[in-house]
């Protein structure tokens, strides 16, 4: 600017009145979903600038109509897994109304291979049961006043599984003859078996199936540990073994031999995926007294093909403080059906809903709640279920 004359420095007093209250938005937190559409929570506060400093105000001092959303949509990446379904089965009846079913699979869209349902557990799934009609049935005479074939039942919730193993269900108080012996040769096809002994060796090497699943079960007061004796998994080809329990989830391929896996609970599922014939793992499992009590005294563990659950388990004059649960585990290839024969959870008109039954499908972690005197038939998608009796 030389040689233009430089003006004198001047300082003028500006408006010192505080700025009007405004909403301040902090950066959004982590996305609620690791893939696909999720929500990120952002902190919204009411602030006011006064003499260059920000002062926190109560929210009612800021304009309510201008308050930003506390949750905003977010997408980290597109999901790499999705639900896939088989074709619908034929109608269950030759005439009249029936049902059709289809099987669901968790699919890796890149490889088009089936993976564990646990990878799809956060994604919505379409229906797997629907009604169908096979046309009118021939006319039949029905006796309206006949009571033939009716039978009374005791108040209970009947639990049945679509399997027929030799294991009894009374909290695993089993004689040796009632427990299926552990398979020690892969040729005996261990896939889909439920092992209930206190210790054993499971040979999953050289099985014919590319996806092989076994389950191990013990009483609630015990926990299961597994040691990998031998492994021939081809990690570069994508072969892997998955250990999942109520308190843990672990997958691996490399450095498996002699590694120790502690389930921290009384049940454990082992899923092995191999691509090359002859590969697999050999496991040795043991049970021991649980180091931490993760269950209530009124909880029950069932393993057998069918049984009855009656709740409450205490006498009427004893108050039930804890939420009693029943854990049901069957062989991995089988499914569970729970039918309510008699329910009385109090008057539905009080709208408090303190008394209810919650049934959880462990494989998908989806829950259903039943109130009042609503009888129901519930079916699982996997081999594990949990029932909670509240109040």
- Number of separate helices: 0
| CATH class bucket of the largest domain | Mainly Beta
Q: Could you name the CATH topology of the largest domain?
A: Jelly Rolls
CATH architecture of the largest domain: Sandwich
* Name of the CATH superfamily of the largest domain: Spermadhesin, CUB domain
Helix-strand blueprint:
Blueprint: E1 22-25, E2 37-41, E3 44-50, E4 53-57, E5 71-75, E6 82-85, E7 97-101, E8 104-108, E9 113-115, E10 129-133, E11 157-161, E12 194-195, E13 199-203, E14 211-217, E15 222-231, E16 240-245, E17 249-252, E18 260-262, E19 267-273, E20 281-289, E21 300-302, E22 306-309, E23 324-329, E24 336-340, E25 356-361, E26 366-370, E27 377-379, E28 384-390
Parallel strand pairs: 12-14, 21-23
Antiparallel strand pairs: 1-3, 2-5, 3-4, 6-8, 7-10, 8-9, 11-22, 11-24, 13-20, 14-19, 15-18, 15-20, 16-17, 16-19, 23-28, 24-27, 25-26, 25-28
Keywords: Repeat, Secreted, Signal
Pfam families: TSP1_ADAMTS
InterPro entries: ADAMTS_ADAMTS-like, Sperma_CUB_dom_sf, TSP1_rpt, TSP1_rpt_sf
